[in-house]
Amino acid sequence: QVQLVESGGGLVQAGGSLRLSCAASGRIFSTYIMGWFRQAPGKERESVAAIGWSGGNPYYADSVKGRFTISRDYAKNMVFLQMNSLKSEDTAVYYCAVKPGSSWVYWGQGTQVTVSS
Q: How many other CB atoms are found less than 10 A from the CB of residue 27?
């Protein structure tokens, strides 16, 4: 069984930065894709960023390109999301997820990010 625990959320002013962390326990293989999603109030959950086994060519949603950076520590089974130049529209609950095959199967409990304008 895989468990994911996010941390690093909080309240920040617009233009500020936060770094989210996600620690995975259980059988996580380096070939699994790890990623971040977010869900704002009244909106559907959306993909923010994802990183594969090699770390190259990570995926970013258009809305966060140039501001967010995803990284991964394969030895520690951790994934990070560095968020810079935060905007009020980035306010959401952020979730870490793992994709062993074709679907996102494992999810964390979420961490709240609130950006004040």
A: 10
User: Could you tell me which of 26, 27, 34, 31 has the C-alpha nearest to residue 80?
Assistant: 34
pLDDT in tens, 32-78: 999 999 999 999 999 999 999 777 789 999 999 999 999 999 889 99
Question: 10 vs 2, 31, 67, 112, CA distance in Å?
Answer: 25, 31, 17, 6
Task: Dig out the tokens for 73 from the structure.
Answer: 């520590």
Q: For residue range 25-34, what is the model confidence (pLDDT) as tens digits?
A: 988 788 899 9
Q: Please, is 23 exposed, middle or buried when counting C-beta atoms within 10 Å of its C-beta (0-12, 13-18, 19+)? A: middle
Q: What is the CA radius of gyration of the chain?
A: 13
Supply 75's token pair.
């030895």
